[in-house]
Amino acid sequence: MKKAEIYPLKSGPLVVAISSRALFDLDESHRIFEDRGIDEYRAYQTRHEDDILKPGVAFPLVRKLLRLNDDAVEHPGVEVILMSRNSADTGLRIFNTIEHHGLNIERAVFTSGGSRSRYLSSLGVHLFLSTHIEDVRSTLSNGHASALILPGVSDRPDSGQLRIAFDGDAVLFGDESERIYQAEGLEAFAENERREAMQPLSGGPFKPVLKTLHEIQSAYPAEDNPIRTALVTARSAPAHKRVILTLREWGIRIDEALFLGGKPKGPFLEAFGADIFFDDQKVHCASAQTRVATGHVPHGVANEGLGTRD
């Protein structure tokens, strides 16, 4: 199977596209659409277009991302773009809610039920967060980072920092090592990582996201930084060395690295205070989503039905 080329990082801000259902709680209106059809849905949204929607799972993340633009420090900045399967007419309630919360979101795409992923390259998007699995898969297959936002908690303690946690294989890195684990087992995996320790891992779909976050971080002093990142992986020694040397080769700082050796990730992510966590494995997403906002990345060998390790 040919791997999609990862788009090179473009100069400029970190551009995050987000679906309306990831940003706001649209469960009630979505049930009306599912149960009663588009006409009833349109009438419902029109009747309630002045009613403010409750925050969705990714709302705190978006608020913190946009807050990075509010200080006087010069850095690449962040742009958030709304991507909605609503029409512009039914989407008026969403824009009214954006205005109510004071979110500086200026660009929007309304597709009236059509795919949104075809517009991402034109918009220069680094990351697309959605609740629609097909849009996420299409985005990943075209070389952009994307994650399925899972149901979970939207009201969490606020550390004041933007805290983002990433899994390793198939997220920040390619899945070549994971493929060895799936095909040959843990011993072969560990031996490969010892042998290839000085050979950097390939970049995964989220490498450009981490790189741009690092560029923003670099504008601030390390001891007083609005962003904190973490690698939270099921790897353990001796497989840790290759990861550390890969990040060094990329010139990317990551603030915390947790090599958990297969322990459940949820408690550690809660202790870190993640505003969002990205993982390709459903088992780790299940551990995380009741504690922190979680994005499943349906990418790599684990999503070809061959296992659930990292």
Provide a descriptive summary of the structure in words:
- The protein contains 13 helices and 10 strands.
- By secondary structure, the protein is an alpha/beta fold.
- It has a 10-stranded mixed beta sheet with strand order 3-2-1-4-5-10-9-6-7-8.
- Strand 9, helix 13 (282-288) and strand 10 (294-296) form a beta-alpha-beta unit.
- Helix 12 (266-272) packs across helix 13 (282-288).
- The two termini are 21 Å apart.
- 44% of the residues are buried.
Strand content: 15-25%
Q: Extract low-pLDDT stretches.
A: 1-10, 306-310
Q: Please give the order of strands in the largest beta sheet.
A: 3-2-1-4-5-10-9-6-7-8
Structural class: alpha/beta
Fraction of residues in helix: 25-40%
CATH class of the largest domain: Alpha Beta
Q: How many E strands? A: 10
Report Rg: 19 Å
List keywords for this structure.
Rossmann fold, 13 helices, 310 residues, disordered C terminus, alpha/beta, 10 strands
Topology:
Blueprint: E1 14-19, H1 20-23, H2 27-36, H3 38-47, H4 59-67, E2 78-84, H5 92-101, E3 108-110, H6 120-123, E4 127-130, H7 133-141, E5 145-149, E6 162-166, H8 176-184, H9 186-195, H10 207-217, E7 227-233, H11 240-250, E8 256-259, H12 266-272, E9 276-279, H13 282-288, E10 294-296
Parallel strand pairs: 1-2, 1-4, 2-3, 4-5, 6-7, 6-9, 7-8, 9-10
Antiparallel strand pairs: 5-10
Helix pairs in contact: 2-3, 8-9, 12-13
